[in-house]
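General statements about sequence and structure are easier to judge against a single worked case. No coordinates are needed to read the tokens, only the vocabulary itself. The sequence in question and its structure tokens are set out directly beneath this paragraph.
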Amino acid sequence: MDKKKTPLLGLTLDELQSLAIGLGFPKFVGKQIADWMYRKHVRNIDEMTNLSKVARERLSEHYTIGCSDPVDSQKSVDGTIKYLYRTTDGHYIETVFIPTDDRATLCVSSQVGCKMNCQFCMTGRQGYMTSLPTTEIINQIYSLPERDRLTNIVYMGQGEPFDNLDNVLRSTEILTETWGYGWSPTRITVSTIGLPQGLLRFLEDSRCHLAISLHHPFPEERAKIMPIEKAFSIEQVVALLKQYDFCRRRPMDIHAPRQRRLSFEYIVFGGMNDSIRHAQGLVDLLCDLDCRINLIRFHTIPETSLQGTDEDALVKFRDYLTAHGLFATIRASRGEDIFAACGLLTTKKQEEERRSQTP
């Protein structure tokens, strides 16, 4: 990206229209710019051929598209591809493309590192560097080689999306508005550990699907692996969710349309959260919510005593939840051999190299 010029990528329609007026052009030029970027994915302002030559020249004096290709990639034996992007200010982020027979999902990052320090997550072990601007979030999609194959996007990469909510919501606006990518919000899922102010704002302002990182039903035990529990408990998160459209429908509401889907992410650790006691705790905690539970195998990370559960215990755990009214599935692990699976994303090595090279 050109550091001397302001990137257009990541600007909303209102901002592009104001930009056009500020340069002395009609308001509709902003709509044309949006179309060239978010529908046609141009790489250079000169490609915007329905803008006059004068308009393109004046626009190019101050602005650039702001897209940049991945600097590296790794492909798993299962077809998953992990891409490394270098941000404008020299940081690094990872993005994961996950193809299946009928879907192609992109797992995007919202921060470089993370503040939340969850004990089972490599990103949390990396520490926090910075939040990504909207440009850097959208670029993970814009410059993806498989962009045109995408069916779904999940904000489950590096970082806590609700710790960077302004830019996350701006990016989902670009993805869902008719002047942008025009996607249905149901193609997008945002994952969070449940930061209270961010959660409330998301519930009010977004129609995208929501995923909550749960990982333990009991507050005192959850706090040992997720420090956020001490500030805002999972019980408070669930109480807030029950005020919205995730409560189980009464019989007369059976045909009411779902506005969005709620899911809970639950990494299953051997001897720590995989017993029937824990399964019953989940049933008690979530029984009034219309939700699904995604059970995730733990992928061992360095310097931790946590271990994954065995397959028999995992299946028994799922079957107990299902038998007691909670829709539970075991998520297939993807990209583990290239450290692209859940909890394994980190650019710590690249960040250390970057710091060592900085004068």
Observations:
- The CA atoms of residues 272 and 343 lie 17 Å apart.
- DSSP finds 13 helices and 14 strands in the chain.
- The two ends are 21 Å apart (CA to CA).
